[in-house]
Design brief:
The complex is a heterodimer.
Chain A (H helix, E strand, L loop, with lengths): L15 H17 L67 H18 L3 H14 L4 H14 L2 H15 L6 H15 L1
Chain B lengths: L1 H52 L8 E4 L3 E3 L7 H10 L3 E2 L9 E5 L2 E5 L3 E2 L4 E2 L3 E7 L2 E7 L9 E3 L3 E5 L5 E3 L9 H11 L11 H14 L9 H7 L9 H17 L2 H11 L1 E5 L2 E4 H10 L8 H10 L12 H17 L5 H9 L15 H12 L4 H6 L3 E4 L3 H21 L11 E8 L6 E5 L11 H4 L9 H8 L8 E3 L5 E3 L2 E3 L11 E3 H6 L3 H11 L1 H10 L21 H12 L3 E3 L4 E5 L5 E4 L4 E3 L3 H16 L16 E6 L5 E7 L4 E8 L9 H14 L16 E7 L11 E7 L3 H7 L35
Parallel strand pairs in B: 1-15, 3-4, 12-14
Antiparallel strand pairs in B: 1-11, 2-10, 4-5, 5-8, 6-7, 8-9, 13-14, 15-23, 16-17, 16-28, 18-21, 19-20, 22-25, 23-24, 26-27, 27-28, 29-30
Classes of the chains: A mainly alpha, B alpha+beta.
Chain lengths: 191, 792
C-alpha cells in the first residue's frame, strides 16, 4: 500500500518586528509610569487600595469586649462564653493573616470579579458561590455577587447579597461607602 | 453430396449459434431480472439503512456528576485521601511525568498531577500540571508545574455518580473521526479490515488472505468480514448464521457503501462496536472504551493503547486487559505487527510499543452512587426533561454532591444504627421494620446539598426519608420559638418552670418536663440549652402563638400549624430537609437558602442547557441569627449536646438535640459557619426508640463530622452590628449583693426589655416563688442547676 505523502508544514522564523514592538511598549510604559497590566487585587473604582493583610486592624473600642475587629474574611475567634465568669478583660484583637481557606476563597472571589468585568455574570456567580461556600465570612464576595445579580437584572437577589455585604463590610472604611452606593443603585433600580 | 453436408453443417452451426444466442439471451434476461431484484431490494434497504445508521441512532445515557473537589494549602486532606480521590477519577499512575492530563505521579511525600480540563455549566478551565505537597496536617503547598507559581487552590473535576440508562443499557461516548488520532484508526483497520478504503464493501482478497492465514496458523485468526460487513451485521438485533442472513448482510453492506462515504462508515463503526462489559452495562465504541479501560479521552490514546483497543474488537471478553492482561498483550502485539507490516508504523515505534506493559485504570467506584440523592435529583430533572430524553440525549448533569461527604454520611449512619441495635436489642427488628435513619449535609449559606442519605439500605426500600418522611421535630423546633421571641425577650429573660395547665378551645393540656421535675424559673438561655419544656411553653404563650406560627412559616415549614401550646414542643410534622433548611437561616445571617442539588445541565456537545444559581431570602436579621447561634452553642457547651466534646468534636458547633413525643424520633442538627448536618433516627412505623436525640442521633453526627476534618475551618461567626455584651448577675437579682456576674449577649437596645424581664414573671397559677437556693451540683459555668432539666 502506498503511503500518501502529506505536505509538511513550513516553519517560518518569527519576525523581529513583533519583538521590537513589544520592547517599545514595555519601555514606554515603564517610562510613562502607568501600568499596562492591571493590578491583581480587586478594587472597586474610585477608592484607595485595600490595606495589606499584615496591617493591624483598628483597636477595639472599649466596652465592646467581644467584638471581632479583625477583617471580616478572617475567621473570628469564638467570643467569650456567655455565662462564663468575667475573669479579666479580653486581649486586644490582633489582625491575623488570612487563613489558607480564606485565601483560597479570596482567590475565587478575584476570579469571579474578573469574570464579571469581562462581561460573564453567570460565570462570575458560579465562582463567587463557590467562594461563599468555602468561606462564608468573606464579605467582598457578597458585594460582587450583588454586582453580578444587578448585571443580570435580578434586583431581589442583588438586594439580598448587598445586605450580606453590609453585614460583613459595614465597619470596613474601605468598603462601607461602596456597599451603600450599591444599595442605592439597587433601590433606584427597583423603582 | 458435399453441398448437402455443407448445408447440414451450416444448419447445425446455426442451431448451435441459436442455442448460444438463446442461452445468452436467457442469461441476459436472468441477470437483468436479478439486477432488477437487487435494485428493488437495494432501494428498499436504502431507506431502512438510512433510518438505522443516520441521525440519532444511539441512545447515549445521560450522566450525573458530583461537584468539583477544592483542594487548598492548609487543608486537612491527607495524601492517601487525595490519592484515592484521583484514583476514583480514573487518573493513571505513571512513573515519569506527568505529561498528559489524567496522569498522577507519586514523588516522595508529594503528588504530581496533570489536571484534566474542567467543563462545568458555569465555567471552564484548561488542565495544567501541579505538585501537591503534604505535611503532618494535610496539604502543605500546591505549586503549578507549568509556571512554578504557587496555586491558592485547585479543583478536581466532578466524579460520575450515576447514569440514566435506556432499556438496552449501552454505554457510549460519541467520537468524531476527525478528532481521533491516526494510529487509533490505523490500528482498527490493521486489526479488522486493512483494505477498508479500497474495497467496495466486500473484500475477496481479504477473504482469501484470511483463509490462507487461518490455514497456516491452523486456527481462525482472521475474519474475512470487512468493517462494512460488520456494521451490516449490527443492523440486526439478533445474530444468525444462515445463508439468507449472510446474503442480506451482503446487500446491506453494498447499500452502506453506496449511500455513505468511507469515512462516515468508519465513524459509525468506531462508535458502534462492542468492546466489553462494565457491570450490567455494555461498553460501546472507542470513546467509551478509552474512558473505561484507560480513563482517557479517545483523542489521548497512545499507540499501544490504541492497538489494545483495536485488538479487543474480535473478542472483547477474552482479550479484556483488566482480567487477562497477558492475552490482551499478545493480541495487542499482533495488531502492532500488522500495522508494521503495512508500513503504518516504523520499526522503532513497534519496538517501543511492544515494550510498554498493559496498564489499565480501575475506577474504585465501590457502589458509591448516592442513590437517594440521585432520586431526589431526578425529581428536579424530570421537571425539566422527560425521562425518554434523559436516557437518549447524553446530557451531563452537574450536581452539588460531595462524594466523600456522602460516603462519610452513609458510613456514619450505618455504623450508628448498628451500634444502637447492639446496645438495645429491643431495637433490633427484621427486614422492612428495621431501625431507620436519615442524614442531610448542606452548606447553610448557599443551600447546596453535599450529601443525602434517605435510609439505611436503598436496596431494601427506596423511600427517601430525608425529603419525604413526615416526622415530629419535637425539641428541634424549640429554637424557632426562641427566635420568634427575640423582639420582646432577651437571653437573660426569666421563664417560668412551674407546672401549668393550658386551656384552649375546651381542651386542657398539662405539659411535663422530660425528667418530670419542675419548679422555679430559668433563664431564656438555660431553658433552650437544657431543652426544658415548661419554660418553652411559657415563653410561647406569653409571646403569642400566632407569632410562633408566623416565624415558622417564614422559615419554610409547610405543615398545618395550629396555634396550640403544644406547637412550642414541636407537635406537628416536618420533613428532615425542611428542618435542615430552617436551621440554615440561623447559620447564615438570617438568610434562608433554597435547597440546591442541581448546578446545571450540559448537552453532549458542551452547550449549556441549564444553569442553576443559589437563591436566598432573608427572613430574620443577622443579629438575631448570631444570637440564636450563640444560644445553640450553649446547647453544645453546657446543654443537652455537651457529650459532643467527648466524641472528638473540638471545634465550635451550634446545635440542637431533639426527641419527639414517646421518643418516636431522635434528632440532632448541628452547624458551623460552613457546614450544617442533620441526623434523624426512628422507626418507619413510629415505634418508640426508648432513647433521646443526644443518645441516638448525636453520635452519628459526631462520627460523620470526625471523618471529614478538611471541611471544618474551626472558626466561628463574626459578630454583626446590632449586638452588645453586658454583664448580668448569675443568680438573677440585679442588686448589690450579686456575688457572681456573667457575660450575656443582647440585641442592641434591648436593655429596657432586659431590665423589665429580669424580675421573675407573675404566674397565673400558684404564688410567686423566690429563686431556689443554689444547689450543690451546679454546672461549672455558674448556672444554677435547675429542677426539671434535661429534655434532650
Amino acid at each position: 500500500m502506498t503511503r500518501r505523502q502529506r505536505p509538511r508544514p513550513v516553519h517560518r522564523p518569527a519576525g523581529a518586528l513583533p519583538l521590537i514592538l513589544a520592547a517599545l511598549i514595555l519601555a514606554l510604559s515603564g517610562c510613562a509610569g502607568f501600568d499596562i497590566f492591571p493590578p491583581v487585587r480587586s478594587t472597586p473604582t474610585q477608592r484607595p487600595s485595600k490595606p495589606s493583610a499584615k496591617e493591624a486592624a483598628p483597636a477595639p473600642s472599649p466596652g465592646q469586649a467581644d467584638q471581632e475587629t479583625a477583617r471580616p474574611d478572617q475567621p473570628a475567634r469564638p467570643p467569650a462564653e456567655p455565662g462564663r465568669d468575667v475573669v479579666s478583660p479580653p486581649p486586644q484583637a490582633q489582625a491575623a493573616p488570612p487563613t489558607p481557606r480564606a485565601q483560597a476563597s479570596l482567590s475565587l472571589t478575584e476570579a469571579g470579579r474578573q469574570a464579571l468585568e469581562s462581561g460573564q455574570p453567570d460565570q462570575a456567580i458560579g465562582l463567587l458561590e463557590r467562594a461563599a461556600g468555602l468561606n462564608p465570612g468573606n464579605g467582598e464576595n457578597y458585594y460582587w455577587l450583588a454586582e453580578a445579580w444587578l448585571k443580570k437584572g435580578n434586583l431581589d437577589q442583588a438586594g439580598e447579597y448587598n445586605k450580606l455585604a453590609a453585614r460583613y463590610l459595614g465597619r470596613d472604611p474601605n468598603w462601607s461607602g461602596q456597599v451603600k452606593l450599591q444599595a442605592e443603585r439597587i433601590t433606584a433600580g427597583k423603582k | 453430396m458435399a453441398p448437402r453436408k455443407k448445408k447440414k453443417a451450416r444448419k447445425a452451426k446455426k442451431s448451435r449459434g441459436r442455442l448460444w444466442l438463446r442461452l445468452a439471451l436467457a442469461g441476459l434476461a436472468g441477470s437483468a431480472l436479478l439486477g432488477l431484484a437487487l435494485l428493488v431490494a437495494g432501494a428498499f434497504l436504502w431507506t431502512e439503512v438510512g433510518e438505522r445508521f443516520s441521525g440519532r441512532m444511539w441512545s447515549i445515557p445521560s450522566r450525573v456528576y458530583s461537584d468539583t473537589t477544592l483542594l487548598y494549602p492548609g487543608q486537612l486532606y491527607s495524601r492517601p485521601e487525595v490519592g484515592r480521590r484521583l484514583r476514583r477519577l480514573g487518573y493513571q499512575e505513571v512513573e515519569a511525568g506527568p505529561r498528559a492530563p489524567g496522569q498522577v505521579r507519586a514523588r516522595g511525600q508529594d503528588l504530581e498531577v496533570y489536571l484534566r480540563d474542567l467543563q462545568l455549566p458555569s465555567y471552564q478551565r484548561e488542565g495544567f500540571p501541579v505538585r501537591v505537597s503534604f505535611g503532618e496536617t494535610g496539604i502543605s503547598a500546591i505549586q503549578r508545574l507549568d509556571n512554578l507559581q504557587p496555586a491558592p487552590f485547585i479543583e478536581l473535576e466532578p466524579e460520575e455518580i450515576s447514569r440514566f440508562f435506556g432499556p438496552e443499557r449501552e454505554s457510549r461516548r460519541l467520537v468524531s473521526l476527525s478528532r481521533l488520532p491516526r494510529h487509533l484508526i490505523r490500528a482498527v483497520l490493521a486489526a479488522e479490515d486493512g483494505d477498508f478504503f479500497r474495497h467496495p464493501g466486500i473484500d475477496p482478497w481479504g477473504i482469501l488472505r484470511a483463509a490462507y492465514t487461518n490455514l497456516r496458523q491452523r486456527a481462525v485468526v482472521q475474519g474475512g468480514s470487512t468493517i462494512t460487513q460488520q456494521l451490516a451485521k449490527s443492523y440486526f438485533l439478533t445474530p444468525e448464521r444462515t445463508f439468507s442472513r449472510k446474503l442480506k448482510e451482503l446487500l446491506i453492506a453494498f447499500v452502506l457503501e453506496a449511500r455513505y462515504k468511507k469515512e462516515t462508515i468508519l465513524e459509525i463503526y468506531l462508535n458502534e462496536i462492542y468492546l466489553g462489559q462494565n457491570g450490567s452495562a455494555s461498553v460501546n465504541g472507542v470513546g467509551e472504551a478509552a474512558d473505561h479501560y484507560f480513563g482517557k479521552k479517545a483523542e489521548d490514546l497512545s499507540l499501544p493503547e490504541a492497538a489494545l483497543l483495536a485488538g479487543l474488537i474480535k473478542a472483547p471478553n477474552r482479550y479484556n486487559p483488566i482480567h487477562y492482561p497477558e492475552l490482551s498483550r499478545t493480541r495487542r502485539d499482533q495488531v502492532l505487527s500488522a500495522m508494521r507490516k503495512r508500513g503504518w508504523i516504523s520499526q522503532q515505534e513497534l519496538v517501543a510499543a511492544w515494550r510498554r506493559p498493559v496498564r489499565t485504570t480501575s475506577r474504585d467506584s465501590a457502589g458509591r452512587s448516592a442513590p437517594f440523592f440521585t432520586d431526589y435529583l431526578s425529581q428536579q430533572l424530570t421537571a425539566l426533561y422527560p425521562a425518554s430524553d434523559l436516557v437518549k440525549l447524553g446530557l451531563s448533569v452537574y450536581t452539588t454532591l460531595d462524594p466523600r461527604v456522602q460516603e462519610a454520611a452513609e458510613t456514619a449512619l450505618s455504623h450508628g444504627l448498628k451500634r444502637l441495635e447492639e446496645a438495645d436489642p429491643r431495637l433490633l427488628r427484621p427486614g422492612e421494620k428495621r431501625l431507620q435513619g436519615a442524614v442531610i449535609v448542606m452548606r447553610p449559606k448557599t443551600g447546596q446539598i453535599l450529601a443525602m442519605v434517605g435510609g439505611r439500605d436503598y436496596g431494601q426500600t427506596q423511600f427517601n426519608r430525608a425529603v419525604a418522611a413526615r416526622r415530629q421535630p419535637g425539641s428541634t423546633f424549640k429554637p424557632f420559638v426562641y427566635l420568634a421571641a427575640l423582639d420582646s425577650f432577651t437571653p437573660a429573660s426569666w421563664l417560668s418552670n412551674e407546672p401549668k395547665t393550658y386551656r384552649v378551645g375546651g381542651q386542657s393540656w398539662t405539659p411535663k418536663n422530660f425528667d418530670g421535675r419542675a419548679g422555679g424559673q430559668v433563664r431564656f438561655r438555660t431553658a433552650l440549652a437544657q431543652s426544658i419544656n415548661l419554660p418553652t411553653v411559657d415563653l410561647a404563650t406569653r409571646l403569642g402563638l400566632e407569632k410562633v406560627v408566623e416565624t415558622a412559616r417564614s422559615l419554610g415549614f409547610t405543615a398545618p400549624l395550629s396555634p396550640y401550646p403544644s406547637l412550642a414542643l414541636g407537635a406537628f410534622e416536618v420533613t428532615p430537609l425542611e428542618l435542615a433548611r430552617a436551621y440554615c437561616a440561623l447559620a447564615a445571617d438570617g438568610v434562608l437558602p433554597f435547597p440546591m442539588s442541581l448546578r446545571g445541565v450540559v448537552d453532549e456537545n458542551g452547550r449549556v442547557l441549564e444553569r442553576h444559581h443559589v437563591a436566598i431570602k432573608s427572613v430574620t436579621t443577622p443579629a438575631k441569627a448570631y444570637l440564636m447561634s450563640s444560644l445553640l452553642r450553649s446547647v453544645v457547651t453546657q446543654g443537652t449536646a455537651r457529650s459532643l466534646a467527648n466524641q472528638g468534636i473540638d471545634f465550635p458547633v451550634a446545635g440542637k438535640t431533639g426527641t419527639s413525643n414517646d421518643s418516636r424520633d431522635a434528632w440532632f442538627v448541628g452547624y458551623t459557619p460552613e457546614l450544617l448536618a442533620l441526623v434523624w433516627v426512628g422507626f418507619d412505623d413510629g415505634t418508640s426508640l426508648h432513647s433521646t436525640g443526644a443518645g441516638s442521633a448525636l453520635p452519628i453526627w459526631a462520627e460523620l463530622m470526625r471523618s471529614i476534618p478538611w471541611q471544618h475551618s474551626g472558626g466561628w461567626f463574626t459578630m454583626p452590628p446590632g449586638l452588645e455584651t453586658r454583664e448580668i448577675c448569675a443568680e438573677g437579682d440585679s442588686g448589690q449583693d450579686c456575688s457572681r456576674r456573667i457575660n450575656e449577649l443582647f440585641l442592641a437596645g434591648s436593655q429596657q426589655a432586659a431590665q423589665a424581664r429580669s424580675q421573675a414573671p407573675e404566674m397565673q397559677s400558684g404564688s410567686f416563688r423566690s429563686p431556689q437556693p443554689r444547689e450543690k451540683d451546679e454546672t461549672p459555668y455558674g448556672h444554677p442547676r435547675v429542677r426539671g432539666s434535661l429534655d434532650p
